Amino acid sequence: MNELLLEQKLKDFMHEDLGEGDKTNDILFPDSEIATGIFVAKEDGIFSGQLILEKGLSLLDQQVDITMWKKDGNWVKKGETIAKVTGSKKALLSGERVVLNLVQRMSGIATVTNLAVSRLENQEVKICDTRKTTPGIRMLEKYAVTCGGGVNHRHGLYDAIMLKENHIAAVGSITKAVEQVRKSIGHMVKVEVEVETEEELKEAIKTDVDVIMLDNMEPDQIRSLLSMIPDSIKTEASGNIGLDQIKIYAETGVDFISLGFITHSAKSLDISFRLSR
C-alpha cells in the first residue's frame, strides 16, 4: 500500500468529518487529558486495516501509543481485542469514527474474500477482485482483498490493457483491437481480452494475448473450451459467479476467478471502540 497516498487520504477523510473542529469534544476535554481505549471485534472475521489505526489516530495525536494485538490477515473472534490505544482523549474520540468506518469496511472485504478462497479445493486457482470498488478507497479495498487471501486484478485503467465487449465492437474485431494496442505499448504491459463465444475465443488465441477472460460462461462450457487454450495464455472466469458456484468454476481448470461482490457487496465487519472507565 502506498503510505504517502494513504496519509493524504486519511487527512482528507478526517477533515471531512472534523471540519473546523469537533464541537462536542472541544468543549468537554482539554488537549492534555489522556485516555486508553480498545478496538474490539463484535463478530468473527478477518482483520484488515492496521495502518489505518496507526496512521489515522496519529494524525490527531502524534504522541498516541498503539499496541496491535491483531495483524492484517489475522482471524479475529467475537469479543477479542484488536488494538489498544492511549492518547489524547479528545483526539481518540474525534478520530474513532473515520478509523472505524475504514477498518470495518476493509475487514468485511477481507472476510468475504477469505470465505470465497475457502471454497477452493484447487489451490492453484486464485480468487481476484475487479474494478467494482468504492471511488476514493479502491487502494484500501484492494489491499483488503489480499488480506483475505485473494489477489488483485488490475488496479485501474492505467496498469493493463483489457479489451472488453464494447472496445471490440467499437474497433471492429478482436484482431484489430489487439493489433492496435500492441503498436503503442511496451513489453511490460499485459493484454487481456474478454470473450463470450467459441468463435471469439479462437480469434483471441490467434492474437496470442496474455490473458483470456471467459465471460458469463457456464462451467461446462468453460471446461470444454480450456483444451483449446495454450498454456502460455492465462485464463479467467468472470460474470455473476456466486459463493456457491466457486468450487465448480475452480474445477474447470481456470487460473483465476474474478468476483465483483467481494468489494461492491461486502458487509462491513462489526468492530467497536471503547474507552476504559
Protein traits:
single chain; 277 residues; Aldehyde Oxidoreductase, domain 3; four-stranded antiparallel sheet; 11 helices
Task: Spell out the blueprint of helices and strands.
Layout: H1 3-18, H2 23-28, E1 34-41, E2 45-46, H3 50-60, E3 65-68, E4 75-76, E5 81-88, H4 89-118, E6 126-128, H5 138-147, E7 161-163, H6 165-171, H7 174-182, E8 191-195, H8 198-206, E9 211-215, H9 219-226, E10 234-238, H10 246-250, E11 256-258, H11 261-264, E12 271-275
If you had to describe this structure to a student in words, what would you say it looks like?
The chain has 277 residues and is of the alpha/beta class. It has two domains: 3-116 and 266-275, Alpha-Beta Complex (Aldehyde Oxidoreductase, domain 3); 119-264, Alpha-Beta Barrel (TIM Barrel), CATH 3.20.20. Helices cover 42% and strands 19% of the residues. The chain has eleven helices and twelve strands. The protein has helices spanning 3-18, 23-28, 50-60, 89-118, 138-147, 165-171, 174-182, 198-206, 219-226, 246-250, 261-264; strands at residues 34-41, 45-46, 65-68, 75-76, 81-88, 126-128, 161-163, 191-195, 211-215, 234-238, 256-258, 271-275. The strands form three sheets. The chain has a six-stranded parallel beta sheet with strand order 6-11-10-9-8-7. A four-stranded antiparallel beta sheet has the order 3-5-1-12, covered by helices on one side. It is elongated. It starts with a helix and ends with a strand. The model has no long low-confidence stretch (mean pLDDT 95).
